[in-house]
Amino acid sequence: MDPDRTPKVSIIVPLYRSASFMHHCIDSLIGQTLTDIEIILVDDGSPDNSGVIADEYAAKDARIKVVHQENRGASAARNAGIQAANGEYLGFVDSDDEVMPEMYQILYAAARYHSAAMAICNYTEITLSQNTLFEIKHAIEDNECLAAVQIRERILPALAAGYDLGYSGLWNKIYHRTWVKEQGILLDEDRDHGEDWWFNCQLLARCYALVGVQRSLYRYIHRGAPSLSSTYRENGFDLYLQSRRQLRRLLDVHAIRYDKNALDRLFLYEVVGQVREMLMHSTSLSASWHEALRVFSHEEVVACCRTDLDMPVRFKLLSFCIRNRFLTIPYATFFAYHRLRGSLAKVHFVRSTWHFFIAIVELLRDPWRKSSYFERYFATPDPWKYETGEDRRRLERAAEILDRIRTGKFKHVLEIGCAEGVFTKMLAPFCDSLVAVDFAPTALQRARQRLSHASIRFEHLDLRSNPIHGTYDLITAMDVLDTVFRPADLRRIRSNIADALEPGGYLLFTATRQNPLFETEWWGKLLLRGGLNIRDYLSRHSSLHLVYTECSETHAFVLFRKEPA
């Protein structure tokens, strides 16, 4: 490649122990529809033959440049790639991932059209061992360009609250190279985790224009089986603390308004997750106690444990204990669950005890236990605001997903939780026969009035105790399954739905996503709170195959297909 030529995009790929899979990545880059690119392969002192393979590729394609260096880590490798790059824009790809053929052509065209410093697309997270796809969608409209003030109002506060949506990753973006160099920002080589997050936080705070592309163009691939030990870091708490302080300082320096309560909630979720992981890996009771004591008594942790945080009851109880220095209680609770979990009998005991502990609060709020709950809820028309705003947009997005998977009209469709018929009206054109059911008579009555001209059958149905009559090639459940508070009820509903689906039929549901960090915690899985935990629970049914997951800032869209017999 002519050293004086300026390619449109320089794509940087760090290599370390990548020999067995790097060809998938490099081949996907060579096959880009944007041909005027530069591919920089950085061999970070890899002990396998990754460097040799990289040199072989470079000998065949003049667009490929190879940098060899001693092993200094991924951040140092990416920084070396930045220094070697000549392109107008920079892109980053991990060696075990793949990109769609048109990725850089689309991102480059969008960035050039708007003269943007950065461009971002959606990406698909793939776990090969579990055969699952999970699409991460940012919250910028397609071809929308955010100016600096909009980035500070929308993107950075979302990051501070823990709603990442792909903003922190390197791989689903391109960056104007000259602008990045002018900022004097490189990846922090002293960090062993979150270096891409911090790199993007700094650039987003200075970004003058960010353009969004609403297409999933990057494939983020988990090639091995999930491993707890691969994600646990002994210095995790210190990293979270450092990140919190850096982010607050950055937001304050640039006078960016953010929700302090949301930042504090995020920090507590991270702290609890770190203590949980520590107890699962620690072999010393004394060491784990002293580490938990250090974490729970830290001044910033205590300061976050205020009464005005909008958090689940279990976190309020934990915050109360930390705030009042009852540190033995949270430690004992974590220890009891995670250190006794090897025995099924003990796990059952701990689970049952935890259920009893929260039952008073949770079951009193269980709408399925009180027939009058939804009647009071629907006393005011459109209580969920489906007619306007973001909630309507969510239903429209669900309709777009259905439109994408159908080859013609669905023959028989069941809508669970039709409410007042807003989504029912969207569904009707997609099907020959539609049955809409709900638990609330008032909602059914309003839905009938709204759609009196349509040939739709409305029925009252309690899925916990009544079977679904008939079979369907599509069943939808919008914002319904996360109102089921008892796992036993959800188990019966799961069986009802699976039995009512025809082989090859689809189930689409939406549910509140909640905080993405909270989704991974054991209590969320135990109590089946949040769309992602419900998704994982439904996946255990032998006939339901997970096809697609998509997340917005607040909700998850999940699509299942019933396996043919």
Précis, in short:
By secondary structure, the chain is of the alpha/beta class. The chain is built from 23 helices and 17 strands.
How would you describe this protein?
This protein is an alpha/beta fold and 565 residues long. It folds into 3 domains: 9-226, Spore Coat Polysaccharide Biosynthesis Protein SpsA, Chain A (Alpha-Beta Complex), CATH 3.90.550.10; 229-339, no CATH class; 375-562, Rossmann fold, CATH 3.40.50. 45% of the residues lie in helices and 21% in strands. The protein is built from 23 helices and 17 strands. It has helices spanning 22-30, 50-60, 74-84, 103-114, 148-160, 177-183, 195-206, 228-231, 236-253, 260-281, 285-296, 299-304, 313-323, 328-339, 344-364, 372-377, 389-405, 422-427, 441-450, 487-500, 516-519, 522-527, 531-539, and strands spanning 9-15, 37-44, 64-69, 89-92, 98-99, 118-127, 132-136, 145-147, 173-176, 209-222, 410-416, 431-438, 456-460, 472-478, 501-512, 544-551, 555-562. It has a 17-stranded mixed β-sheet that branches. Helix 7 (195-206) runs parallel beside helix 9 (236-253) and helix 9 (236-253) packs antiparallel against helix 10 (260-281). The longest helix is centred in the middle third of the chain and has 22 residues, at 260-281. The protein starts with 8 loop residues before the first strand and ends with a strand.
The CATH fourth-level homologous superfamily of the largest domain: Spore Coat Polysaccharide Biosynthesis Protein SpsA, Chain A
Percent in strands: 15-25%
CATH class of the largest domain: Alpha Beta
Task: Decide which structural class fits the backbone.
Answer: alpha/beta
Distance between the termini: 56 Å
Indicate the CATH architecture of the largest domain.
Alpha-Beta Complex
How many helices?
23
Overall residue-averaged pLDDT value: 82
Helix content: 40-55%
| CATH T-level fold name of the largest domain | Spore Coat Polysaccharide Biosynthesis Protein SpsA, Chain A
Indicate how many domains the architecture comprises: 3
Major sheet description: 17 strands, mixed
Number of strands: 17
| Cα Rg | 26 Å
Q: What are the low-pLDDT stretches, counting only 5+ consecutive residues below 50? A: 225-230, 341-356, 358-366, 515-529
Shape: globular
